[in-house]
């Protein structure tokens, strides 16, 4: 299970074999069944997780009970509620498995120990946090400046393998539109081809 984590770490920072093993030993494996929540609104997030198998959605319910998907996480992606995890406050998010999944969990306490014992780990998480911030900024700019049609096209092109694993309802919740409107977009695009 840790092979994918080793590869993910190596994409961001250079650790010795000993440091990589030491860091990976902080993680606990967990199997998660489809439709199982690993975090619900109101709970305090006590983990960061690395997905080794499966698919998750991270979402919020608005005041009308509609899902607003922040992101999906598949193999080789990280998931958490960073606000709840960092500040140890109740979460506003839900994290649900969309498929039977396997994850590696690290607790806040163990992450802090990793920072102390392996200095390069702080660099690893700084780099990942910066990349996440860039992705969220781009997503916000796209949401504010592009039509729903263009956002759907961009999502389908950028995440083609992910899009095939999701329902129209899930994609629509990510794009911030109704699934009926997504169906109209897809129909219109298929006619243009």
TrEMBL record:
InterPro entries (alphabetical): cNMP-bd_dom, cNMP-bd_dom_sf, RmlC-like_jellyroll
CDD domains assigned to the protein according to its UniProt record, in alphabetical order: CAP_ED (cd00038)
Entry annotated with the keyword Kinase: yes
UniProt superkingdom: Bacteria
Annotated GO MF terms: kinase activity
Keywords: Kinase, Transferase
Pfam families linked: cNMP_binding
Domain Cyclic nucleotide-binding: 31-110
Coiled-coil intervals, chain numbering: none
Name of this protein: cAMP-binding domain of CRP or a regulatory subunit of cAMP-dependent protein kinases
